[in-house]
Amino acid sequence: MRAQFVLSEIGVGLRRNLTMTFAVIVSVALSLALFGGSLLMSDQVSTMKGYWYDKVNVSIFLCNKHDAESDANCAKGAVTEDQKKQILVDLKKMPVVERVSYESQDQAYKHYKEQFGNSPLAGSLTPDQMQESYRIKLKDPQKYQVIASAFNGRAGVQSVQDQKGILDNLFQLLNLMNRAALGVMALMLLVALLLIVNTVRVSAFSRRRETGIMRLVGASGFYIQAPFIAEAAVAGLIGGSLACVFLVVGRYFTIDHGMALSSKLTLINFVGWDAVLTKLPLILATSVLMPSLAAFFALRKYLKV
């Protein structure tokens, strides 16, 4: 009987404040969709870091005869065969180095033509203008400075470059975008909480006569509060369910179908469905707990029960 009364009061409350209930549902749905999207973006950045940092190389570019005329690092002339052999020996002795590969001037010229063959500069370059280099795969990509400090300024070495630096700029941009999404999510969440509190208070005010009678007949505080808290929880759950739908549909149409980014951007290892599905229970739990707690604290002061 008591459960039936609580359920009937939930229905009455939701219908009585239909406009505000709709606003709560929409704001909860949008804020939690952004919350889930931010979690997925964080997972995506972590996945990309693990994938790309495992592939980055440190490159030691060697001086050629043209560098000797224009680059201060190559003032002693082009690299000699003895210097190349000594650099290779020293690299293989270093514990941070996993693998070393050599790229000749002809190979560098071929790779350049493959990547930038349509540029105006490509037609004026010749193989002897390209630089020989050693490509080093590190056991730990964070140990770039060990290579840089050992070979920068060394005779025959024009420069030491770390591809990780380029990736760091990309990941900084992605993290900035993720923080911006979290900021918007926090704002939407605040709006949702304010709407929930106001909706509960309006609902309690419109039924103040009923709650007054319930106090007089000795109803417990929880029994009086339960319908209002349940109204907020139901509205939040509907919003959370919509947020889950937004995430699933968004993942489906942007990555798998529709935009089909997974087939267009094959170099990016996108997060899988398992990452999406693990976020859905968290979103649903938040969608119930957040409105329930907001309603509980609002009612403690308003109803004074």
List the helices and strands and how they pair.
Layout: H1 2-16, H2 18-53, E1 58-62, H3 67-70, H4 81-93, E2 97-103, H5 105-116, E3 133-138, H6 144-151, E4 157-162, H7 163-206, H8 208-216, H9 221-256, H10 261-264, H11 273-303
Antiparallel strand pairs: 1-3, 1-4, 2-3
Helix pairs in contact: 1-9, 2-7, 2-9, 2-11, 7-9, 7-11, 9-11
Written account of the structure:
This protein has helices at 2-16, 18-53, 67-70, 81-93, 105-116, 144-151, 163-206, 208-216, 221-256, 261-264, 273-303; strands at residues 58-62, 97-103, 133-138, 157-162. The protein is α+β, with helices and mostly antiparallel strands. It folds into two domains: 3-52 and 169-303, no CATH class; 57-140, 2-Layer Sandwich (Alpha-Beta Plaits). The chain has a four-stranded antiparallel β-sheet. α2 packs antiparallel against α11, α7 runs antiparallel to α9 and α9 (221-256) packs antiparallel against α11 (273-303). It starts with a helix and ends with a helix. It comes from Streptomyces pluripotens. Pfam families: FtsX, FtsX_ECD. InterPro entries: ABC3_permease_C, FtsX, FtsX_actino, FtsX_ECD. Its main location: membrane. Part of the ABC transporter FtsEX involved in cellular division.
List keywords for this structure.
elongated; four-stranded antiparallel β-sheet; 305 residues; 11 helices; 2 domains; 70% helix; 4 strands; Alpha-Beta Plaits
Summarize this structure briefly.
The protein is an alpha+beta fold. The chain has eleven helices and four strands, in the order ααβααβαβαβααααα. The chain folds into two domains: 185 residues, no CATH class; 84 residues, Alpha-Beta Plaits, CATH 3.30.70.3040.
